[in-house]
Amino acid sequence: NDSHFSLFEYSQNLYNPGAAGANNAICITSMHRQQWVGFDDHPQTTIFTFDMPIKDFLGLGAAIMHETIGFHNDVSFMVNAAYRHEFSFGILGAGASFGILNRSIDGEWKTPSSLGGDPVYRDPTIPHKDSKVAFDMHLGATLYGKNYWAGISASHLTRPTLKFSGTNSTYVARHYYIAGGYNWTLPNPSSDLLFSAMAVYASTFEFQINAKYLYEKKFWAGLSYRFSDAIVPMLGIHLAFGMSIGYSYDIPIGGNTYKYNTGSHEIMVRYCFN
Fold first, then answer.
1. Residue 163 burial (CB < 10 Å; 0-12/13-18/19+)?
2. Whole-number Å distance between alpha carbons of 102 and 104
3. In whole angstroms, what is the distance from residue 241 CA to residue 272 CA?
4. Are 119 and 113 in contact (CB under 8 A)?
5. Which of 74, 20, 30, 73 minimizes the C-alpha distance to 51?
6. 241 alpha-carbon distance from chain centroid
7. Which phi and psi (to 5°) does residue 55 adopt?
8. Which residues lie across from 237 on neighbouring strands?
9. Which residues are bridge partners to 56 per DSSP?
C-alpha cells in the first residue's frame, strides 16, 4: 500500500497532483514517519515535496519519497503539473504526475539446518539482492475555497510492474483517494476549529478524520481517529516567517499491532513564501 501519513493535509502533493500550487505560494515540505517502532525493521518513510503556482492558471510541483520496510527499500520521484481555474466559489486544480519508482530488495534469509545447513541455503525462487525501476503515474483534482478544500485522486494508474530475479512479477496496486477539510472560525476570532478527513481504497479500505483547535492562527492541537486502527494526538505551530512544524503520535488500538509496538511517530516541517 501507499505510505500513510496521519498529517495528510500536508502530504497532498504526494498523492494528488491537483494540489500543485494550491497554497498560492512556493512551499517546501518535509515529513518523516516511523511506524510501529516496537518492531525490528519497522517501516520508515521520508518525503520531500515542492509546489508553486505559475501565473494564475498553472501549478507545478515535485515529490520525492524514500521508504524502508523490512527487506524493501523504495525510492520514488514524481513531477506534478496542474491546470488551475478560478470560480466564484474557489480555485479548481486538475493535474497529473509522472515519474519512476525504484524498489530494491536485500534479504538476509535464515533457514533450518535440515534445508541446507551452514552456509544458509539459497532458494532460487527467493530474490536475495535485486533492484527494479518502473514508470508511475497519478491523476487528481483539488478544489480550494475560502474555508474549505476537497480532493479526489488515483495513484499508480499504470500499476507499475516489478520482476525480481527468480520470482513471478508483482505490481503496485492502484489507490483511490477522497480527502477534504473545513475551517470553522468560532465567535471568538482568535479561535478556529479545523476538520479534515481522508478515505483511501486499494486492497483494503482506510478512513481517518482529524479535528484540531487553532489559536491566534499560530498554535494548534488536535486528535485524529483512524477507524479500527489508531487514535492520534497531534500538535503544531505556524511561525510568522512562513515556517510550520507539526507532530503526531499514533496510539494503536486494533488488530495485533498494539500488543507488540509502542506507536508511530510523525514529524512535518513546511516553509512557504511568496
1. middle
2. 7
3. 8
4. no
5. 20
6. 25
7. 55, -140
8. 219, 245
9. none
Q: How confident is the model at residue 113 (pLDDT cuts 50, 70, 90)?
A: low
Length in residues, the chain: 274
Q: DSSP readout, 153-172?
A: EEE-TT--EE--TTS--EEP
Spatial separation of the C-alpha atoms in residues 77 and 37, rounded to whole Å: 26
Which residue intervals of the chain are DSSP H helices?
Answer: 12-15, 257-260
Grid coordinates given for 254: 486494533
**Given the C-alpha cell 530474490, which residue does it identify?**
127
Cβ neighbours of residue 259 under 8 Å, at least 6 residues apart? none
pLDDT digits (tens, 9 = 90+) for 231-273: 999 999 999 889 999 999 999 887 665 566 679 999 999 999 9
The count of other CB atoms within 10 Å of the CB of residue 226 is 20
CA torsion through residues 34, 35, 37, 42, sign? negative
C-alpha cell at 255: 488488530
Cell (9 digits) for 146: 475560502
Quick one: cell of 3?
A: 505510505
Write the single-letter amino acid at 237. I
Helix (H) or strand (E) holding 51: strand 44-54
> How many CB atoms are closer than 10 A to CB 70?
12
Residues 73-94 have pLDDT tens digits of 999 999 999 999 999 999 999 9
What cell does 168 get? 513471478
* Burial grade of 93 (CB within 10 A; 0-12, 13-18, 19 or more): buried
CA-CA-CA-CA torsion sign (220, 221, 224, 230): positive
